[in-house]
Amino acid sequence: MQNKTIYQLAGSGIQQLVPYQPGKPVIELQRELGLEKIIKLASNENPLGPGPKTVAAIQSALPELARYPDGSGFELKRALSAKHTLETEQITLGNGSNEILELLARTFLIPESEVIFSQHSFAVYPLVTQAVGAKGKSVPALNYGHDLDAMLVAVTANTRMVFIANPNNPTGTYIQHNEVEAFIKALPEQVLCVLDEAYYEFIDANEQFDSVTWLDSFPNLIITRTFSKAYGLAGLRMGYGLSSTLIADLLNRVRQPFNNNTLALVAAEAALADHEYLQKSQQLNCQGMKQLTDAFTSLGLSWIPSSGNFVSVDVKREGLPIYEALLSKGVIVRPIANYEMPNHLRISIGLREENQFFIDALTAVIND
Ligand SMILES: *Cc1c(COP(=O)(O)O)cnc(C)c1O
After folding, report:
1. Quick one: which of 143, 89, 150, 94 has its CA closest to 117?
2. Which end of the chain has fewer CB atoms within 10 angstroms, the N or the C?
3. DSSP conformational letter for 109
4. What number of H helices and E strands is found in the chain?
5. Which fold has domain 22-49+276-366?
6. Rounded to the nearest whole angstrom, what is the distance from the C-alpha of residue 260 to the centroid of ligand 1?
7. Ligand 1 centroid from CA 307, angstroms
8. For residues 279-300, average pLDDT
9. The architecture CATH gives domain 53-273
10. What is the CA(197)–ligand 1 centre distance, in A?
11. 332-349 pLDDT tens trace
12. pLDDT tens digit sequence for 197-244
């Protein structure tokens, strides 16, 4: 039984909160079905595993674990500031970029604040908004992507933050840089623009644009990046925000003093230097994307063109039973009915043989 008095001690936003639903872990399915072979294409993780140089860096840091980490993240920030050509004081390190999103909400939002995000966009935006009691506004999507014009129209005197995921998760849609720039320019200065670039490294080279150069022009801009996807370190939790020094200073007041652990700090620094691994990840992703989308075409299924390391496919019927049928064959993908896309499944790009295993399972399930 709920203890009603204690329940009501929680903020009203928290009472209404529905927790984030992660992809099903491999060991959980193994436990449930006792299957030998299970592949997980459900959480946009890097199928290569961490790079060997990164693993070596982690190993060499193990003897340090009795000590607290470097709470300033000095070495990693130095490497990131060189990479992005900005001051170390403009960088905020987070326990995943998820923590940066949460820090932004805790630092800048109060219950009167309104926050704008797109329909079919990342579930964490409404979550962090609601957790601090602020008011989220979901703006209807345009062709599964952000409708920037409509998002501008949604801005009121109470709006304090706008989240843009580019590329977006779970749709993979990408907004060209000139459109994003015009959008930020049109925002009132008291509205912070959070540009979430978790999948930046997977954007086609012809379309990639270095949004970090905008920081000089837009004091209300925060860019977030992560080591969880292309850099293959989802399990260690390391992401970062790039902003003005003022925003970084405010976030630094709120964050835990040791929010990034020792292994994550050294691993991220090593991963950042391993250009070969990144290139390999990008290449594998390109090939896997083609492999999957070609198969969808053969099966007569349509998909949303994606700039990320995943693709959402329209299975032309309710996705949940298909998801469950795939589970029984040892394939974990992601149903996205909770993103108002009941007929789509989101598939993360895996290794060539994993993609094929999924394609074979999907073909069998669809033709069943
Ligand atoms: C995966 C993802 C993140 C980042 O996750 P972290 O592991 O916390 O860095 C952020 N935004 C989007 C849109 C994502 O899909």
Report:
1. 150
2. N
3. -
4. 14, 13
5. Aspartate Aminotransferase, domain 1 (3.90.1150)
6. 16
7. 15
8. 98
9. 3-Layer(aba) Sandwich (3.40)
10. 8
11. 999 999 999 999 999 999
12. 999 999 999 999 999 999 999 999 999 999 999 999 999 999 999 999
